[in-house]
Amino acid sequence: MNTLISTPLCNLRIAKFPSTFCSIPHSVSLHSQFLYKPFQCRANPSDLIDSKTAQEPEQELSNRATEIDEETDTASEVSATKASSGPKIDQDLKKVVQKTASTFAPRASTATKNPAVPGSTLYSVFEIQGYASMLLGGALSFNLIFPSNEPDIWRLMGMWSVWMFTIPSLRARDCSKNEKEALNYLFLLIPLLNVIIPFFWKSFAVVWSADIVAFFAMYAWKAEASHCSTHGVPLVRNIAELPQDNYGRPGLSHITIAGSLLHGMKEVEVWLQTFAPGSRTPIHRHSCEEVFVVLKGSGTLYLATNSHLKYPGQPQEFPIFTNSTFQIPVNDAHQASVELKRSCSLDREIKQTSEETKAIYVWNTNQGEDLQVLVIISRPPVKVFIYDDWFVPHVAANLKFPYYWDEQCFQTPTKDEL
Ligand SMILES: *[C@@H]1O[C@H](CO)[C@@H](O)[C@H](O)[C@H]1NC(C)=O
């Protein structure tokens, strides 16, 4: 029976969105990959916001900044509205499901650390037991084992096998948060199916099949978000296989190489970003140190240099080029007092950081080439203040938190008592 099982579902998270991966040839070494091979998922210049000219007169700069940031603002408003209603209900539902599931299907072990960790024999035993009982249940409900013409106990057992054996077995493993959530939902959903379906269709086989469909549908749904789990992330990862996205920003390709929400980083976070010709970051600042390494292409860094104003002020321009590096200085406490006044929900976090960085933005002003940068930031996850233009007072900059690439994995911390 043991040979029936092969796929560890806990590994689902590794390969997500294969279609959006940048297809970099695997045979090329990392170094040359990033320095010389453009990402093939490079944005089409025609759908860029700023594809017109590479070098712009300074006056136009703030107009365009307003343009681009209006978009950003709309996006953040939308997400703010969503954040206030959707996740609240979602959170409550999750809690209820978690509570119910832990009451009626307690984990095998009450020890604080589940010994059935991935790779352990116990883990495999639970997994094999789970899928074997599923198949056995199928065979029983399809009348393949102990066949009879009566709706006997074996048929009934078969119909309930997923709920009675598969889910508890899988839940006994130390699996990812998402998988556990999927199992919790299934634990409540399957009895409903099993009770309701017989009213319409008196067939053990149909009920079992419906359970199986529900099982895999739930897994597929939860696997969507499962790359957020820090659980089971392989030590060595191929950057070309990491999820990349533009997060609604045309011309951008962002990969979180090592993230706080994605990979559990505590002190630093590393991004690989590619800007198509003409695209750029919004004018922004965040309270962290930031180091850029330009791997490929060229562009312009705009940095507000006067830290004594109440707004960023006219920025200074710095050409950036392949193999150049720059770090965004963190201001002294000067603006922190201003910050305290405007802080509301993030009071605690802002008080902790007594300094902040200067407003910057990076613009791929080279029409001919992608600009690829490696970005290292401190104190993740990043909290970004976005300016409509360089004369927006620091206190009026819009906070975007969680930032676009952190949205999907950001959760208000909840205790997982299972
Ligand atoms: C960038 O640096 C690498 C390693 O030092 C070097 O091989 C390469 O030629 C440089 N590229 C450019 C465009 O300067």
UniProtKB/TrEMBL annotation:
It comes from Rhododendron griersonianum. The chain crosses the membrane at residues 182-199. GO terms for biological process: auxin-activated signaling pathway; defense response. It is found in: Endoplasmic reticulum lumen. The lineage of its organism: Eukaryota, Viridiplantae, Streptophyta, Embryophyta, Tracheophyta. Disulfide bonds join 228-409. Zn(2+) binds at residues 284, 286, 290, 334. GO terms for cellular component: chloroplast; endoplasmic reticulum lumen. It holds the Pfam family Auxin_BP. Residues 50-87 are annotated as: Disordered. The keyword Chloroplast does not apply. GO terms for molecular function: auxin binding; metal ion binding. CDD domains: cupin_ABP1 (cd02220). This is Uncharacterized protein. Glycans are attached at residue 323. Residues 56-65, 75-84 have a biased composition (Polar residues). Keywords: Auxin signaling pathway, Disulfide bond, Membrane, Metal-binding, Receptor, Transmembrane, Transmembrane helix, Zinc.
